[in-house]
Design brief:
- It contains 22 helices and two strands.
- The longest helix is centred in the N-terminal third of the chain and has 29 residues.
- It is mainly α.
- A two-stranded antiparallel sheet has the order 1-2.
- It starts with a helix and ends with a helix.
Length: 483
């Protein structure tokens, strides 16, 4: 029989830990003297109590590790349970938000999507602003651990190719996760603190610097203002661009760097090189377009192109200008830029660079086979031959990703949304980018005006996209539950 107690135990502990983090925004509200702190006290007590009771109830079934089926279930249910309890401060403390809106906001935060249903964000209590940032920050480090430890074991989307990259994750999953998490956490905190210091140096107040550092390094994209980074000047734009790029690189390379491995892995990693080449080319093209169409040759045009391209390709979702006004070419470009993503093992989302590398390597090998039928041509990645299982997994991911965009887009259209809103909403949710296209959910809008059915569809799409699609589909399959 399928034993779910180990899964319940881990989820209970994580829920309780989430509740403990609610004391930070409680203290922020106490410090600000706005009288909003009881909201977080109530939410923390409920969350810690429920999480602790679930962990205690399942403790007798804990083993030294998880099997594959339990791991699949754990990776999915965690991203359902945490947004459920993460929505409590919004539900209790923001009377205008329904349960649908509160859950959407929490799911968007923890999956680091950055789509929001809130308006007048600058007028929210400090605690709620900090809570939005904390959720994204926790979601960012959480997805790194999932990508480094669980997904390679589960052979999801070609992630098994990273089993031999930096860490051996074979064997007991949970003990290995704790070891890797501790190393990554140090780096994650250090980069976040560095980002906050840099934001402060270029003029942000301390609260904005801390919260925006959290959402920048998590590539989450939730800002403290309705105008996002349009609220700030040139300094924060450049600082955010640098740290969004740093957060989109594989964190295992940072671990190797501080472990005495030197900087060489950062320069020889083909995924990193490809990411920089693609990002540079896109920034160059968009800069030339903005210069030609709007600003002429100017620093402003370059900065707006740089910031928005980096924000969308990394899946952060910040904006400092309404690029919907840049014309059809720019809008189309931004749609496809959002489907690229950063590197595997980073906080960035979407398809990821390595999958495109494997896709093109496979296409190249197939073309050569057609040209020379008797030759033997094997796709290679980082100089190593790629196994058939990895290629099949990557191809399955691409097919599932594109089909999912179509299905979610059609479902959104059935709720009454127009084509642009439906298809861009599906893409931005599954790619965890944040803003979509159009006047309603574009960079100058938000998701507040969508109907409840559309918000639930998008919430599920955010979950599916954050867990690389196949993990969730596997749990939903009949064969998974068959004993």
């Amino acid at each position: 029989m399928f034993d779910t107690r180990p899964v319940g135990y881990v989820i209970g502990l994580l829920v309780a830990a989430l509740g403990a983090t609610m004391f930070a925004p409680m203290l922020a509200d106490l410090s600000a003297g706005n009288g909003h702190w009881p909201v977080f006290l109530e939410s923390a007590v409920i969350t810690i109590l429920v999480g602790g009771l679930v962990a205690l109830a399942c403790q007798n079934g804990v083993s030294s590790g998880l099997n594959i089926r339990q791991t699949f279930l754990l990776t999915t249910l965690v991203w359902l349970a945490l947004p459920l309890f993460g929505s409590l401060p919004f539900l209790i403390g923001h009377s205008e938000l329904s349960f649908t809106d509160a859950f959407f906001e929490a799911m968007s935060g923890l999956t680091t999507t950055g789509a929001t249903v809130m308006t007048g964000i600058e007028h929210l209590p400090e605690g709620l602003k900090l809570w939005r940032a904390i959720m994204q920050w926790l979601g960012g480090i959480g997805i790194i651990v999932v990508a480094m430890v669980f997904l390679p074991e589960l052979k999801v989307g070609g992630m098994q190719i990273f089993r031999s990259e930096g860490f051996d994750t074979m064997g007991k999953i949970l003990p290995r996760a704790a070891e890797i998490s501790s190393r990554i956490s140090v780096i994650y905190v250090a980069i976040t603190l560095s980002c906050a210091v840099c934001f402060s140096i270029v003029g942000m107040n301390s609260f904005d610097a801390i919260t925006h550092a959290m959402t920048t390094v998590a590539t989450g994209g939730m800002a403290n203002y309705d105008s996002s980074f349009g609220q700030f000047g040139a300094g924060p734009h450049y600082v955010a661009s640098v740290f969004m790029i740093l957060a989109a690189l594989p964190f295992v390379r940072y671990v190797q760097l501080i472990s005495g491995g030197g900087a060489k892995p950062l320069f020889v990693d083909s995924q990193i090189r490809t990411f920089f080449v693609v990002a540079f080319a896109l920034v160059l093209v968009m800069t030339l377009w903005v210069w030609r169409t709007f600003h002429g040759v100017s620093e402003v045009g370059f900065r707006e192109a740089l910031f928005n391209v980096v924000s969308i390709i990394t899946g952060t979702g910040f904006s400092n200008a309404d690029y919907m006004q840049w014309g059809p070419f720019a809008v189309t470009m931004f749609f496809f830029i959002g489907l690229i993503g950063g590197c595997a093992g980073s906080t960035a989302c979407s398809v990821k660079v390595f999958r495109y590398q494997l896709l093109f390597a496979s296409i190249k090998a197939q073309i050569r086979r057609i040209h020379s039928p008797h030759g033997v041509f094997t796709p290679r990645y980082q100089g190593r031959a790629v196994g058939e299982d990895v290629l099949n997994s990557v191809m399955a991911f691409f097919v599932a990703f594109m089909v999912a965009i179509g299905v979610v887009g059609v479902m959104l259209a059935m709720t009454g949304l127009d084509f642009i809103t439906s298809i861009s909403g599906a893409a931005t949710a599954l790619a965890n980018v944040g803003p979509g296209l159009g006047n309603e959910i574009g960079p100058a809008g938000n998701f507040a005006g969508l109907n409840d059915t559309a918000k639930w569809i998008l919430s599920f799409a955010m979950l599916v996209g954050r867990l690389e699609i196949m993990a969730v589909f596997t749990v939903l399959s009949w064969h998974f539950w068959r004993v």
